[in-house]
Structure formats: C-alpha cells, structure tokens
## 1
Amino acid sequence: MLAAAPHSEATLSIVGNTGVAVLVITACMVAMDAFPRLRRLAGPVIAVGSMSLTAYVFHIVAIWLLDTEEATVPRFYVLLGFIASVTVLAAVWSRFFQRGPLEWLMARATGITRRIQ
C-alpha cells in the first residue's frame, strides 16, 4: 500500500479513484440540473453514454480493421479520430433510435427472462 510507483493499484488508490469518479459524476449531474442549456451542448456525449457497449465494440473492431499497431500516424491522432467518429455516429444514431444497435440486441436477448418465473 505504500508503493511509490504510479498506478500501483493499491487499495487506497482504488478507493481514492472511485471517490473521484463518484464526485465527477455527481458534479456533472448537478450541472445538468442547474443549467438546462448545458444538456443540449452535452447531447453528443450523452448519446455516446447511452450506447456505451456499441461504442466499445466499435473501437475494438476499428482497431482490428485499421491495424493501428502499424499506423504511421501518431497514436494521439488515432485516438482523436476514434473519439470524433464514435461521437458523430452516436449523435446521428440517437436522433433516429432510442438505443444503440448492440444495446437493442442485448435487450432483445435478455427480454426473454421477463417471461421466466
């Protein structure tokens, strides 16, 4: 627990990081309630959050298809490209559908459990 290495993942580090994450999420939710216009600006980020499974799978497939290990472009630009593309795709998708495609598929696949008693 007293390791000086960065990201040592000691118990106190995990508890501290969890606390910071909860604080950031709470601050974002309070800001959304306090400033209604902020919700419109945050729309693309909300869209990505509402289809996080689809976003994660999109990144994995894109990394596999683009073979980013051999890319000559700096990795930072690849990261920015991933962020921009998933944000645009999620924002456009959310205008027409309530859920992301993989979220819809998971809801259908697990929907059968509602009928089981």
## 2
Amino acid sequence: MPVDPLWNSTTALQLAAQRRPGALIRIGCQHHAWTLAVLADRIGCSPATVSRLERRTRIADLALVHRAAREVGVPRYVLMTSLAAPPATAPAATRVTASQRDAEEDPMRRRTLLAATAAAGPAALLMGLDDALADTPAPPRAGPLDGRLAGAHALYDQGAHARLLAALPGLIADAHHSAVSRRSLDQARLSAVYGLASAVLVKLGSYDGARLTADRARTWAEVSGSPLATAAAARELAVVLRHQDQHGAAQRLMSSATDGLEASGLRTDATAAAYAQMLCTMAYTAARAGRRNQALALAEEARRAARRLPQTAPPGRLFAISPAAVDLYTVGVHWALGDAGAALEAGKNLRPEQFPTAERKARLGTDMARAWWAWQRPEQTARALLDAYRSSPGEVRDRPAIRHIVNLLAEQHPRTTGVRQLHAAVTPAS
C-alpha cells in the first residue's frame, strides 16, 4: 500500500525525529479533517484522552498510541522513530522538554512506584530503572549483548531481583543501541529485554512500570516480525493486564497470539512450547476471572500440548515450559478458582528437582503454600514457604502477596513450627 505523502513531509519527519508521537497523531487527524471526538469514537476513548495523547510527550498508554496512530495512518517506521528513546549523547537543546504538568507529576509517579515496592527492592535501583525508561542512558557496552541478556535471565531465574534491577538500565541502553541496525534479531532482542523488565516488575508489584515495559516489549516484537517474540511479549502484557484486573483484555490478547501460533502448524518444539505456555497463561487468566469451565478446559489442553515436550526444557529456550511446569500451572488454576483441595491434589507429586531453575523451584513452594493457607493449614504453609525461601529468597521476600501470607502467619500463628524462622528471614532488619 503506498504511503501518503504527508508522512514523508518535512513536518512529519521532524516530529518523528523529535520523539513526538502525539503530534503525529494530531496532524493525522487534521489531514483527515477529524475532530477529537471523531478519533476518540474510532479508538474507543474520550475526546479528553485524545487531547492529552496529542499534547503529551511522555507515553502513558502505548497500546492507545498504537491504535490512534494506526487509525490516522501513521506508517509503522515513522511511529517507531517517534517512540525511540533520544540518543544519550544528544545535546540537551535537541531533546523535547515535557510539559510542566508532566514534570510536576513525575515525583508523584515515582513515589507511587516506590511505595508499592518499598519492601521489595532498594529504592535507588527502582528509581534507576525508572530513569532508564524515561530517558535511555548511554550504552555501557560492557560485553556481548547476548551473553549479558543470558546473564540477566539467569538472575531472574535465581530470584536475584536487586541485581537484575541494577543490570537492566545498562542492558536497555545497549539493546536500544543494537536495535539501531534495524535487523529483526536486534529488535527481537530489545523486546526480550523489555519483557524481562516487565516480568521482574510484576514480581515486585510495580504494575505501572510493568505495563510500560510490557507495551514496549510488544512494540519491538511486532516490529521484529518474529512470531515467538510477539507471543512472548503478548504474554508479558497479558500478565500485567491480569494484575490490573483487565481480565477480558488479557484473554483477548492471549487468544489472538495463541491463534497465530496455532496457525503456524506448531511444527517445531519451540513453537509447541510457546503454544503450551500460552495455554497455561490463558488458563490461569480465565481462573482469576472466575471462568471455571474455560480455565479447566484450557489447563487440560495445555497438558495435552505438553506431552510432546521434553521433561526439562533445553537451555536458552524462550518458552521454558515442561510437563511438570504445566502441572504447576494447574495448581495455580485450582487455587485461583477457590478449590484448595484440588490445587493440593494437582501438586502432590511435584518435586523441586523437576524444575531446572531456583525461581521455578521456589514457585512450587509458594504456589503450594497458597493452597495450604487457603486450606487453613498454617504449619504446612510455613513449611512450603521455607522450602521456597531456601530455593530463592527473593521469591518469598520480594513478592507482596507472599509477604502478606508470611505476615498473617506471624500474626495469627506465631507459635507454629517454622513461622518465627520464616518471618525473621523475610523481615528486613531495622
């Protein structure tokens, strides 16, 4: 399809270079002779939201930006230029200054993020990541990017959340620098970095930051054209949406991504693993939304899909799913549906040695602990959480929902075996 000359005009290209996607949407509206109300109606929001979208330089809802840009006809290459972070070496005069209102909102936004994660990680590290998301720093180029990304994934798998937070700003900077090549592999790698950032922020309960990074992961995955990267990014965004109680949107996003995988024929183990993983996430999302029949049907389909997978996922696989991992998801599905007995039954034969990473071993402990707690068994709850803590302290200490169970145990069952030890391990020294 030929590109409208508007988008190759000096005005449009300058706005893209200045990182002003809202202004591009505005000139697109003017080109179509649309009012704010017309565009708002077409993309499903209010005229006031469109007005803010056009005026602001800080992106609050990347998905909405994509919808609006697509509606007015902004070509993808122009939009992506406008969404890229400014080069870290650019003189200050070439950078676009945010509005005074945005500047005034910055401290509140940071306080909200830090308040939500105060017990989860060092405030300076969270703020450092926040700064890197607002303005990409100069790339440190501290070694091959593939190796550093693998190392960052290893930190996540270990539950070393603070060390991962410290590494992410530099990794984001290097990945952006690499993506300048416009090669699909480099763009997919940048998507993976943002997806990893989203995953750790979800662990810490920082859902606003996780939404931002998941949106960016999805953007770069789509630009890369990689079906697996697109599926991985869609899953990360769906997880965030679920935590924000947008279950319907999460399910629609996952359904679309899963349909795309299924259409590929699932001819490789990598795509088969991706398909099984997506079904697991869809099952848990349906369970959290209270859709019992759908959740159980999806969980069963995930088990069937996992039968062709190896018992242990090969190192480096994007979707490290296995039959045991699917069974662990089933524990979570039953727990989310309010059936603690079925959750305990689903997990009774699972063992830590079936899971290759500390994060998954600990997740077995925390998921079983949630079921034991719902079953009103404090001693078994404490024992499962201690097992999880021994595998990965961060999985117990850094996750707000799990810390909440620890605190309830300490308040309601202080004399139960293991509770004092667990609470002392998780509570920061004063």
## 3
Amino acid sequence: MKASAFVYPWDVNGDPRAPRHLAELGIHQVTLASAYHSTRALTPRHPRHRVVTAEHAAVLYPPGDRWAGRTLRPYPAGAWAPEADAYGEAAAALADAGLETHTWVVLAHNSRLGAEHPDTSVVNAYGDRYPWAPCIAQPATRAYLVDLAAEAAVRPGARGTELESLGWYGLAHLHAHDKTGGVGLGDAGQYLMSLCFCPDCRAGYAGHGLDPDALAAAVRAALEPVWQGAPSDGGWPAVEKLLGDTTATATRAWRDATARTLQEEAVAAVRAEAPDGFQVLLHADPVSYHCGANAGVDPAHILSVADGVVVPCTGGAGLLTPFAEQGRAGAVLAANLTVVSGMGGSPGTLADDTARARDLGATELRLYHAGLASDADLAQVRSALGGR
C-alpha cells in the first residue's frame, strides 16, 4: 500500500540528513506543507532548532502576481521559514532522495485573516466572531480560497495535492491556551455553535425560507440547557429535536450547498492549472454537517469531484466505510493514521491498523507526522513499512 508522510519545509531545510531519513522509512511520497496555519511544532532531529513557532497562517513559497491589488491575499511566512521559497527548497531535496512530493494546502483556517479582516469570519448566534474560521459563503472569501487552492496546490514538481479545511470551520479549534472544554457540547451543540450569522449566511437562510433573527433566537434557546449541563449528544437527530425538523433541514441545505459548490470550484481551479495526471484529494469527514480540518462532505458527491479523500483513522477506520461503499473505481481512499505517540498515535500498531484500514477499503496510507515524531516512533514506522 502506497504510504505518504506529512512534513513541514522546516523539517527538511537546513537538515541535509532529513530527506534520506524519510526515504528510509519505507514511504513512497511526502505530503509537504505549502500553505499552512499558525502552529508551534517540535523538530526533534533538526541540527539548528528544536521548536518552530509559525506565528500566523502563511504560504511557504513566494505568492504570485494574481494577488496584486486584492484586499484578501495570502501572507508570506516569517522567520520560521526564512528561505525565499521554503516549500520549493524542501521539495527539491526530497526529490533528490527519490521521494514523490504532493502539496499540503490548508484553506478555510486562518486566524490572521480573521483578525485583520473581521468581516470575513464566521459569526455565531450570539454575535461572537471566530477569527480562525473564514465564512465560506462570502463571495470575496470564496474567491480568495479558490485562488489560494490553485496556487498553493500546483507547485513546481508536485505530483498532486491534499486540500485541508475546504469546507466549514466552526467552534472546535485548537487555540492557544484553549478554555472551551468546560461544557460538553457534543455533535449537536457543536453544530449549533458553528452556524454562521454573517450577512451572507443570513441571506442564505432567508433563501431557504427561514427568518434569520428567529433562527438565531431558536439556536440560543436550544443551547440554553446545554450551558446548564444537559447533554447534547445524539448527532443529527438531536439537532432536529432542538431546532425542529424543518428548520434544521433548511440550515443544513444552505450549508451543504455552500460547501459543495466551493469544493467544486476549488478542485476545478486546481485542475485548470495542473499538469495531466495531477492528483487532487480532500481531507474529509463523511458526515456533511461536521466542521473542521476534515471537511464534512457527501461521499458520493466528493468522489465525483476529486480523485479521492484522506480520512482520519486514528482510533478506528470506520469513517472509511461511507466512502468505500460508493464503489468508485480508481478513487483514492487514504487512511490517515497518527504515528506520534505523544499526540495520541500508536506507531507500534501501525501494521495492524493498516491491515484493518485496507480491509475497510483504504487504498493508500497517510502518516501524521514524520517531522513531529520521535526517533523511537519512526523506528516503529520503519519496521511496519519494511523500511531500511
């Protein structure tokens, strides 16, 4: 089974040993970040540093002329990726080691964009803005995301791309010193707290027969018992119970259509600039109302648009099943397994986890994250993959 490991440019640049070390894991490919959100990351083997702090979302290559004069544009990286083309330098070194490189592009997740352009952000039913979550219903934001997808995906030498957070982002977000876990929101509460009430979304709800002010009031009323400690588990049936079937269905219709059309536009834009044979995958969750880095999708729809999906499988590979049931010949179903033991991964069971994922329909493997893992973790990966 073809395996690829996620890597940041700063894992490779400045460390001449890194490409060979990665190749010896037994992987065939590296999924290399070209546009990424803010992060603080360990680099356990790098000869020059041990911690890299990426202060804001940025592209890791020189942005092109298409952004001239535009209000919404990607931010260049700072001192954490000081090379003129950090992505390009790392990709060239990996190619020299015999590794195929695909781009890793983070899209609707950008706290700096929300801080500098607050009107682009998701706004919840209480009027709180989520600066990390650009609202994908807004025309200017959609145009920005589509162009960013095309530019960041199709980098020189790349054979494909993986598009992350190409859909709705909501409340759930790992934020600095996060303090949002005190109330168990469950699936239903997360959905309600992720509904956007910016002007474009309010118009969208109205187009589906809803009064946006009444909807916001209904969301606040539905959440009141949750703040008092009542459980909100139960998935979509719980949302329907809290909002009423008709109202819940209308909100989902608006949000599903908005995400689907963005996904179609972004994939089309990538393909318009890519060479023949360029592979386009989405990081995806098979439940369309889910928000986050793994965008909620309809499996049948997304497999008719993209070449396949990357599916989170740490802790169990069951999310593969709805995609595998579509039976689309040639579709890539990549099982994403965390191999960093300190981040909840299990590199020691990688061989067994891979076998289970294959049985459920996985055709490829993704390993999160070779740059963050300890030597001991990587030794177990090497053993499982038959590396050197």
## 4
Amino acid sequence: MKERAALVELEKVADVCKLLGDKMRLTILSLLKERELCVCEIVEIMNTSQPNVSQHMRKLKDGGLVKEAKKGQWVYYSLNIDDKPYLHVLFQYLPSQKEKVDLISCEQLNFCD
C-alpha cells in the first residue's frame, strides 16, 4: 500500500515538473509569486493574447499550482503551492518579477472594471 502511495506521489510531482518545463508557465508563476494578478495584467506583462494566457492558466489550475477568484467578469489568479513544499525552494531561485508587476495594474489598464 505504501509503495502505491509513493508511486502516486511521484506521478503528481512529475506532472508538476512537466508544467514547470514550459517557459511561459514558469514566467507566469514567477509573476504570481509577487502578487495576485488579473488575466488582463498577465496578458499585458507577457505581451501575448488573452486566449494564450487563459490556456496556460487552465493548465496551471488543473495542475493545482494556481487558484482563481472571479471578481466581476475578470478572473484573478494566485499561487496555490502551500501543499507543495518542494516548490518553495525552486521559487527562491526564480528571478524577481517585482518591477514588471509593480508597473501594471488593472486600474491603469481600464480593462478589469
């Protein structure tokens, strides 16, 4: 029984590693390390389309790495890694995205009303 649980846990970690293997998703997680962000903010910072960001966010959410909160018509995302202590170490090594995050806000973009 313990062996089966260990295999299931290994599979979960492998799935998380696959999600982290994509540069865009890793960058998004690095942004979310700074603060909760709206989809429109991520689109602006990443200089990509909303459908592209939404596709990556869906994968991150399905993988249990982010959680979402709906405010009006917009979805805000935040990290959901408290139950994954092995990621806390990795996140210490991610380059800071604070400057990028601090330069943008929904209010400034007039998208998230």
